Amino acid sequence: MREPAWRRTGSTPDYRFSLANERTFLAWIRTALALLAGAVALDQLAPEFAPGVLRVLLCMALAGIGAVLAIVSYRRWSAQEQAMRHNRELPHSWMMMGMSVVVSAAALVFAVLILLRP
Amino acid sequence: MSSAVDPAPIDRDPGLQPERTALAWRRTLLAAVVTDLLIWRGWLVSLNRDHKAATGLVDLDFSAHSIGLGICAAMACVVTLVLVAAAALRIRLLHSSHERHGDDLASPAWLPALCAGSVVALAATAMAAIVLGLPAGL
Q1: How far is residue B29's CA from residue B21's CA, in Å, rounded to a whole number?
Q2: What angle do CA A102, A107, A111 make, to 5 degrees?
Q3: Mutate: best of A8, A16, A35, A40, partner B, most B CBs <10 A
Q4: CB contact B130 to A (< 8 Å)
Q5: Do residues B121 and B28 make contact, with C-beta atoms less than 8 angstroms apart?
Q6: Of A116, B121, B126, B134, which is most buried, counting CB atoms within 10 Å of its CB?
Q7: Is B123 on the interface with A (CB under 8 A)?
Q8: What is the residue range of B61's domain?
Q9: Per-residue pLDDT tens for A33-49?
Q10: Phi, psi (5° rounding) for residue A90?
Q11: Residue B20: which of B83, B75, B82, B94 has the closest Cα?
Q12: Residue B128 pLDDT > 80, yes or no?
């Protein structure tokens, strides 16, 4: 398979930095997979925690965030790889803040749903 | 730098970087399998419901939900096989390049891309399974 054009620019960084970047990418991928597993588990194993349609919407939102996170983590991996090739500062990413907001919002919504449960 | 201060990474990588990366791929596979099992569970629950609704074994009729969830289970299976193949290849690359020169250890760009794409496909499958499972909870 053809490598992207940026792979032929700059110089190859120390392999240890590339491998660390790859592990960070995989950690984000696992976060995305955990969101998917959480969405399906919530839907199947806790059918009473919210009315049908609301439950499906919440689970779909979690799974959707998982899909977006997978794409964003690839883009982040590629951006950091490029920065290392050109000896630039690593680009800032909103991923951590975004995920903190998502997880806090999810916790809040689920707490409210559990409290309001008849 | 003298070789005493900076030993060649071929002999021994003090951080065991390739091993840690190989383990990270294995952990990722485990996380994918958990999602898979849950999607398969949804299909089995739906088949069980069909079975209870049927009057006898002969006129066991699969509902549209069971067929849809079966397709989801098959999709999840394919995605996992793709991830297993990607991880197996990556782990082999990590070990073989480390033995040869320890320099071209960086992943080819298509492997993370394939991995991210598989997760997106699994997310689509999970979303379809969630929608198809709706009557179960109502």
Answers
A1: 13
A2: 150
A3: A40
A4: yes
A5: no
A6: B126
A7: yes
A8: 18-137
A9: 999 999 999 999 987 87
A10: -65, 135
A11: B94
A12: yes
Phi/psi class of residue B16: alpha, beta or left (left: φ > 0; alpha: ψ in -120 to 50)? left
Confidence of residue A104 (pLDDT cuts 50, 70, 90): very high
Residues in chain B: 138
Other CB atoms within 10 A of residue B94 CB:
21
**What's the mean pLDDT in B9-38?**
85
What is the count of structural domains for chain B? 1
Q: Are B24 and A26 in contact (CB under 8 A)?
A: yes
List, as ranges, residues 69-88 from A with C-beta within 8 Å of B: 70-71, 73-74, 77-78, 81
Residue burial B36-65, b: 16+ Cβ < 10 Å; e: rest:
bebbbbbbeebbeeeeeeeeeeeeeeeeeb
**CA–CA dist A63, B80 (Å, integer):** 17
Which among B13, B127, B138 has the least Cβ separation from residue A52? B138
Find all residues with CB under 8 Å of B15, minimum gap 6, and list them.
A16
- Residues 84 through 103 of chain B touching chain A, CB cutoff 8 Å: 102-103
Handedness of CA A32, A34, A38, A40 (dihedral sign): positive
Instruction: Check if the beta carbon of residue B35 is closer than 8 Å to that of residue A40.
Output: yes
> Cα(A87)–Cα(B73) distance, rounded to whole angstroms?
45
In degrees, rounded to 5, the angle at the alpha carbon of residue A91 between the alpha carbons of residues A88 and A96 is: 150
Domain boundaries, chain A: 13-116
Q: What's the complex ipTM?
A: 0.92
**Distance (Å, rounded) from C-alpha B82 to C-alpha B134?**
28
